[in-house]
Amino acid sequence: AQRVTQPEKLLSVFKGAPVELKCNYSYSGSPELFWYVQYSRQRLQLLLRHISRESIKGFTADLNKGETSFHLKKPFAQEEDSAMYYCAPSWAGGSEKLVFGKGMKLTVNP
Amino acid sequence: GAGVSQSPSNKVTEKGKDVELRCDPISGHTALYWYRQSLGQGLEFLIYFQGNSAPDKSGLPSDRFSAERTGGSVSTLTIQRTQQEDSAVYLCASSLGWVGNYGYTFGSGTRLTVV
């Protein structure tokens, strides 16, 4: 079965520390990969998509096909990065949809 | 419209009543999706529309749930005989084209509370 796993539910760091939000997927084929972010009382919004190789708000994510991982990284976290983060691969089973992980809450302390 | 609009933003209903949730996608977005977001459960896929047809409705949890889309635009998600376990935030998203390239734009959701 196709599955996406965000192994940590919570991550708390201090401002300026590096962060890595883990995402692993078990898929056949080659899904496209996305990260979505939800700030407090705001709607879900696209943070990063692998296909465009963009770096947004200082975040990057490297696709490791061997490990089937797509971890999100930022070298120096800011307080405004505090939010829920969701990893979302595209479904490889013939339907055009994204499959979301359960999310991880990042808290950046001052 | 400029973004994906959902209405109502909040809905409190009594157990056993029917509810209708509305989604107005971004103009020109042919793909439309419904998800359910519950605490600790992440985002649960419900149904996907391409135009007015639904090629994937595999996520609808029971036959009490149905959805339609008309004119390739507005979609309505209907829950009949609501149960307390239906309480969640229902999210709508739309996409301009191939989801692998564009991803989704989400609405702000409808928070449904069944009492």
Number of helices of chain A: 0
CATH class of chain B: Mainly Beta
- Briefly note the structural class of the backbone of chain B: mainly beta
For the largest interface, the chains and their residue counts are: A-B, 22 and 27 residues
Biggest sheet strand line-up of chain A = 2-10-9-5-6
Q: Which value, in Å, is the CA radius of gyration of chain B?
A: 13 Å
Brief overview, please?
By secondary structure, chain A is an all-beta fold. Chain A contains no helices and ten strands. Chain A starts with a strand and ends with a strand.
Q: What's the layout of helices and strands?
A:
The complex is a heterodimer of chains A (110) and B (115).
Chain A lengths: L2 E3 L4 E5 L4 E3 L2 E3 L6 E6 L6 E5 L10 E5 L4 E6 L8 E7 L14 E6 L1
Chain B lengths: L4 E3 L2 E4 L5 E6 L6 E8 L3 E9 L2 E4 L8 E5 L5 E5 L8 E8 L3 H4 L2 E2 L3 E5 L1
Parallel strand pairs in B: 2-11
Antiparallel strand pairs in B: 1-3, 3-8, 4-5, 4-9, 5-6, 7-8, 9-10, 9-11
Characterise this structure:
- The complex is a heterodimer of chains A (110) and B (115).
- With 110 residues, chain A is mainly β.
- Chain A has one domain: Immunoglobulins (Immunoglobulin-like, Sandwich).
- In chain A, 0% of the residues lie in helices and 45% in strands.
- Chain A contains no helices and ten strands.
- Chain A has a five-stranded mixed beta sheet with strand order 2-10-9-5-6, with no helix packed on it.
- Chain A is globular and about 45 Å long.
- The termini of chain A are far apart.
- The mean pLDDT of chain A is 90.
- Chain B has one domain (5-114): Sandwich (Immunoglobulin-like), CATH 2.60.40.
- Chain B is globular.
- Chain B is mainly β and 115 residues long.
- The model of chain B has no long low-confidence stretch (mean pLDDT 94).
- Helices cover 3% and strands 51% of the residues of chain B.
- Chain B starts with a strand and ends with a strand.
- Classes of the chains: A mainly beta (110), B mainly beta (115).
- The interface between A and B is medium-sized, with 22 and 27 residues.
